[in-house]
Q: What sequence folds into this?
């Protein structure tokens, strides 16, 4: 079994297990408004953190950051916890990673929910351009690239103050190496757009309508992803589960209950 470098927390001793994976420059705090409702409805949240984020390790070797390595780590966590099958939920980059897991281990995946994610929709032909853009940004800005990223919670104007403070604290010590490893070795290789039609697991896309740049991707997912339904949340943007926690909780809990 592969060694586990990802920090994870199990938030209930009972209930149907759900893996939660946040997005880039977020942390385990990303799911704070969602966990109580899930636990109250009979679920057992297992909250992970990306490499280099929060309490997770920051390995040096690039291969540790490849999406398939994440898949192996998720599987190692499942085995460690003695779980037969589980539900998956991913946000942004985390959405792409849980989809990669579901395609690799459909027999272990009861169902999955995910939110807006450009990483999901990145196609192989976009990879070279994306990598060149990442490299230009790092060369130009150095460590400032982390603080100036549009994904950095310090730049959000809609986050709840307590959650924003937690996210900032969890990633205050993030290294430039951790940022580079994610942007060079995880994001460009996580896309599954070309595989959406191959999905066999019941899936729910919770779409934040305020992120209008994702509208065409939302429509593509609705048309081309097999076994997937879409719920639109009018008052949510990229951080769907934070912007409209009640709407997100209702959609995901209703969907998950139908699958177990």
A:
């Amino acid at each position: 079994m592969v060694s586990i470098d990802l920090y994870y927390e199990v938030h209930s001793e009972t209930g149907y297990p759900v893996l939660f994976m946040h997005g880039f420059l977020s942390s385990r705090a990303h799911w704070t408004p969602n966990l109580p409702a899930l636990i109250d409805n009979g679920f057992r949240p297992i909250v992970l953190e990306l490499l280099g984020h929060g309490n997770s390790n920051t390995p040096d070797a690039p291969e540790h950051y490849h999406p398939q390595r994440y898949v192996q780590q998720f599987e190692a966590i499942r085995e460690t916890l003695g779980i037969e099958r589980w539900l998956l939920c991913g946000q942004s980059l985390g959405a792409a990673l849980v989809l990669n897991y579901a395609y690799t281990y459909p027999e272990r995946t009861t169902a999955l929910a995910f939110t807006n994610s450009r990483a999901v929709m990145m196609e192989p032909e976009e990879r070279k351009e994306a990598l060149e853009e990442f490299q230009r940004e790092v060369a130009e800005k150095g460590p400032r690239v982390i603080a100036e990223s549009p994904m950095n919670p310090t730049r959000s104007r809609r986050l709840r103050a307590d959650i924003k403070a937690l996210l900032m604290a969890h990633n205050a010590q993030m290294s430039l190496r951790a940022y580079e490893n994610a942007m060079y070795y995880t994001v460009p290789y996580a896309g599954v757009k070309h595989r959406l039609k191959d999905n066999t697991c019941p899936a729910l896309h919770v779409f934040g309508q305020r992120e209008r740049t994702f509208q065409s991707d939302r429509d593509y997912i609705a048309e081309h992803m097999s076994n997937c339904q879409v719920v639109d949340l009018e008052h949510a943007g990229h951080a769907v589960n934070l912007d409209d926690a009640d709407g997100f909780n209702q959609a995901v809990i209703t969907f998950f209950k139908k699958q177990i």
Remarks:
- The chain has eleven helices and seven strands.
- The mean pLDDT is 95.
- The domain at 8-259 is CATH 3.40.50.1820 (Rossmann fold).
- The chain has one domain: 8-259.
